Amino acid sequence: MWPFINIVIFFAAVVGHNIPACKAPSYRLNDGNHMPRFGFGTWLGLDKDELPIPVMDDSVQKAVELAIDAGYRHIDTASSYDDEDQVGRAVNRKIAEGAVKREDLYITTKLWNDKHAREAVVPALRESLHKLNLTYVDLYLIHFPVATKTKAYKPFVKIDYLETWQGMVEAKVLGLAKSIGVCNFNLTQMERLWTSSDVKPAVLQIETNLNIQQPELREYCHNNDIAVMGYTPFGSLFPSRARPDAPPPRVDDPSLQAIAQKYNKTVPQVVLRYLFELGVTPIPKSVTKSRIEGNLDIFNFQLDEFDRQHLQTYHSNYRVVDVKFFSESTYYPF
Ligand SMILES: NC(=O)c1ccc[n+]([C@@H]2O[C@H](COP(=O)([O-])OP(=O)(O)OC[C@H]3O[C@@H](n4cnc5c(N)ncnc54)[C@H](OP(=O)(O)O)[C@@H]3O)[C@@H](O)[C@H]2O)c1
Ligand SMILES: *[C@@H]1O[C@H](CO)[C@@H](O)[C@H](O)[C@H]1NC(C)=O
Ligand SMILES: *[C@@H]1O[C@H](CO)[C@@H](O)[C@H](O)[C@H]1NC(C)=O
Ligand SMILES: *[C@@H]1O[C@H](CO)[C@@H](O)[C@H](O)[C@H]1NC(C)=O
């Protein structure tokens, strides 16, 4: 089943319509809009104590400008990343310079857990749009199925995500978000959302990397025409980000290096290409120019079946983003 699905998705993506000056092919979502099949992450991440790394300077703005110059057209941010203002400044500067038009860009932001009440959704999106200095986003996502009273990780409140979804639909009807979707929903939650709503989610954004390849959710989404966006695409590949309990591989793994050498590519490029060929839209983050450019350079080679099968063997369902601090919520997905 797997290889067949992969091949179908691969051809659908490659034959798909192309956004001008965008190196990534694009994908037609179930609501008729198009999404570039490769994006740019802007989250600075968590420190060793699982606390968000504070945004201290304008490194995100600079990274987004470099990304647009390199050919990225799809940018992923969130209200909780505290960098929508920087993404907005970068995007508006590139538009003002004439480097891109607004309609060539695909901007995603996300609803945080403390705005899950139906009537809180549209005001939360308006606040994000104000920070982004934009009149609409291309995609608005529910960040987690979990609802909290404040911005902090606790206390939890019992707001059903089906109620939150009504607010998301209102945002779409108002044209503030061209498409709507969710992140971090599990299979049960996706099925429940799908069967209970007339307006279907267009995108599911989930952690997808060598250690967690998401076969069940990818198959579900494929069967229901939902695009899968893969966050934390490198997983535990880099020793600096790997917890002590993280399974292999690391970037210096000899078998990965041999594959990379065979295609004259780097190991990170091979990993991103593998995810792309699985039908996933990877959204790697970097604030380093050479990596920003290198990560996008995956559209001129194709892995063979032998290498794909080897890469599949690293799947162990191990998560980097396990959000254990949400585990007491009724809606904890993992
Ligand atoms: N919806 C959600 O719940 C959720 C959760 C997590 C992430 N996300 C989104 O997904 C994006 C990507 O995930 P992520 O940021 O967690 O992880 P990631 O993109 O897998 O990894 C980012 C890390 O890898 C490094 N890196 C990037 N390219 C590299 C390369 N070619 N060689 C060596 N190191 C490289 C970066 O370093 P430098 O930056 O220092 O170059 C950074 O430390 C986020 O930024 C965010 O937009 C969403
Ligand atoms: C917002 O974007 C517009 C261009 O669309 C620009 O003229 C204006 O200066 C920006 N405002 C801020 C506060 O950055
Ligand atoms: C290998 O890749 C590098 C970097 O992209 C490039 O400069 C070089 O020409 C490539 N070599 C071959 C043999 O294609
Ligand atoms: C999804 O999360 C819900 C809420 O915690 C849980 O009841 C359900 O069993 C989970 N389903 C899967 C497939 O993990």
UniProtKB/TrEMBL annotation:
Keyword Signal recorded: yes
Q: Which residues form the signal peptide?
A: 1-16
Keyword Signal attached: yes
Superkingdom per UniProt: Eukaryota
Extract the Gene3D superfamilies matched here.
NADP-dependent oxidoreductase domain
Q: Which SUPFAM superfamilies match?
A: NAD(P)-linked oxidoreductase (SSF51430)
Which residues make up the annotated site Lowers pKa of active site Tyr? K110
Q: What is this protein identified as?
A: Jg10315 protein
Q: Which organism is it from?
A: Pararge aegeria aegeria
Underlying gene: jg10315
